[in-house]
């Protein structure tokens, strides 16, 4: 049994605390929301841990994570370990590791996949950092990851940053997978050749090449709302897809599927497109083609 | 000076009659709209022409063109010539040529580009069919095409169907060109780094790599409506883009730009996307991500 | 226990015979390859079946399937049933059903997914046709489909053609899914931030959002060849992806991911691209940019 | 007549000096290549100019431009003016302007289009910076820009950075335009329905919707090499396309055409694709589909 601090008890962190405790570990959580926090401040949380301490950071990527790491750099001591389990950009990890390294504090980055299902099923984990630190934190990883062979739900991806890099690419792939199912769904809906679209998709869950966990979730969604018409086709994106495309640019790797999936999300959030107004205007200019005027 | 029949006096045919007459040719037009027609029926039009006759067909592609050609097959005689100047699919040309060939009537297909500006500027022409028939109709082509060297506004693309094939690809390219300008316009509008977007686009008309007639038309459109916000980003497509993509499929040629331009038009006409509802539903299933419910 | 004829004992048909026999059914197979055939001719096969007969056709799509169905129309009798389990285009099904219907013979189309793994795991099935015929053939479908709830590996998609339509869309989605993983793999390989790419991908098998059967197969492939450098990046396509894109065109549905996946396959088979030669030529023309001459 | 310093006498700078001198302006050039330089050092060049001085920088974007600007900051004096005419990223301009502003030196960024043809035809110019500085440098801009109305070959796009921003988007559009023509060319070549592809493309130069300067250049290239088979389909990219796509990401603007054009260039430079090896491996795993082994 190990002891750890856990900063950030939102949707993900809260569930992870549950799973860690269920595995018998001691978790001292801290969150600004007193209703869920086990400690009154970051300093209070640290004071409740025995050295050498391990603190898992599970706060929003970017500023919040960098600030939390900087504060932990002040509060922790040589020999302690910080694990960033959030969705940080891999370029933040080098910075965070350096900040802590100056104080003799270790750093691991851990990409975490699994969403709200992770509490029950376990989380897929991708870790970056020194081998010995990874070994030291393995009881925590083992508690968080799914049952089954460790190497099927956990990987030590490489040195600092590699864990978040792997998670970033994981999410880029995820964008592509979701869009592929979505295009198929729209085609089935539009063509009306298949009479029972939800039945067909449910029937893809076993034996087919396209079976997957995402497909199982699509079946769940269709069970609740067979034409998915209770909701709007409005889709946010949360950073990793953009970063994946930036990496494709940096490494001159074509990524037509991942970019198409990202652009489809961008387009889903526009009320009207100035690009398409330009195309409409051009067609009108050369061909006298009718245009739709606003308000018509 | 030559004499010809002209079937179809819509936006394109009407202007072409003007241009042909301005060049000194004799045109007997026929249109169901009596207000613009020079004859009371197709038969009446044919009767007013001296053998060997030439009839230019300028009616909507597909059924209307095929039916007009079939009727001309009944009305015309051996040695006559039919030119289809509409936007027929190239596969229709083989059929039309055979129907007429059985009666000894010649057939040419002619792709016509230039829109409403052709009356003034001349039309870009791409012709398919036998060399001797092309030569025979050259006075007509010369009257319709722009001033300047013949080979810069006219081509004999190959045998029957090649003219419309060339026009189809021309239009596929046109889709891509328009979308490229449109994406650039949207980026300029969105980023707001450039303060005077219409001035920048106007300034691209001379000296730059992107100067083109389409750019000139975009400048015209922006002169009339600097943010193009009088109209909606709703864009029709008229067949050739789809056919071009089908040809890409048939010949296993990647056409990412032309397909992206076509899909952008499809997307511009959807109120909501079932594909994106599926993506939203999936994100909600695995991550508990918020969705927009209809009516919220 | 039921009895059926099975035409076509290639990779798929051979395995299906095994699975059907393992389930206790009587299968009379016919294949032009005598080494695997249970009968000397299609007629011989039919003669060995008791009326009302059921014949499963598992031959290449297009001409071979249409011809086999036509021959069965001659050999079978009223009340018999033909099931096309091949990869026919859904538009062929209407034709095949009519040919047989004229003789009082029933017809079902069945999309079959699962590849070489189906013999062991069962095949995902999507069926089109009349409900009573589907019920009649259910023992066969039950033997072929995977264990577990019937509705998770089998669907009655709609009337004739709907089974193959569902399978076509299934394969279109499959193209997109595969390309999404492939782009992620290429990015991981190119960036070299992740040091152990196969370990990361193996670690995605449990708990992550991207877990799927295709991912499991990618892990298998990487186990055998960790950089996949024993083989060339040359990928065929077998029709369904093209048909899916044609359906997207027909129904004006944007399909950027599926088309990108198809185009990536097209591009993988080109030695050199005339499109990119044109771009190189243009850059050279306006900018004096260096080009690679052949043989340099 | 004005006097200016010109740093960088490569392909672009050399031609611009010619054009400026032909317009009667006095140009003191500096280049590390003594054979073309009018001065022995940057300091020597500056010493030959009368205050208030104007120096045009025409060196490679990134480090070289930033360093040249920094050195000019040391050498120039309050009231002088630096114009960056290179292909700098717009984000560099803010930095460069600040460096110079600290010394009271003015700064303008000027996107320049037109390639090797600019010497003869004039260059399309897009300028960012203060209005009064733009006015002061107008004689230079007027000499460099094409004949005709100023606003058709020159724009004051906005404040510092806006000129390079406009040029970046210009080049992103250019990528899309070139790829659109290229896809059309490949389709014409592949389908072989059009017998004389160069004649068709030449015939698009007048009257058609797709006429443009790039089309004229394609005609030139085809005149020299009708099948473009003297060169390889290998295409570099020089930054602006990537930056445009990064801006699309930053502003959540879909850019499917520009990204497709960029990815086509990336793909043109790969000998083999690990992505497509992954797809081939997957197909082999599930379907037993044949793969091409290396060396086969």
From TrEMBL, chains A, B, C, D:
Keywords: Gluconate utilization, Oxidoreductase. Pfam families: 6PGD, NAD_binding_2. SUPFAM superfamilies: 6-phosphogluconate dehydrogenase C-terminal domain-like, NAD(P)-binding Rossmann-fold domains. Residues 163-296 form the 6-phosphogluconate dehydrogenase C-terminal domain. The keyword Repressor does not apply. Belongs to the 6-phosphogluconate dehydrogenase family. PANTHER family: 6-PHOSPHOGLUCONATE DEHYDROGENASE. This is 6-phosphogluconate dehydrogenase. The gene is gnd.
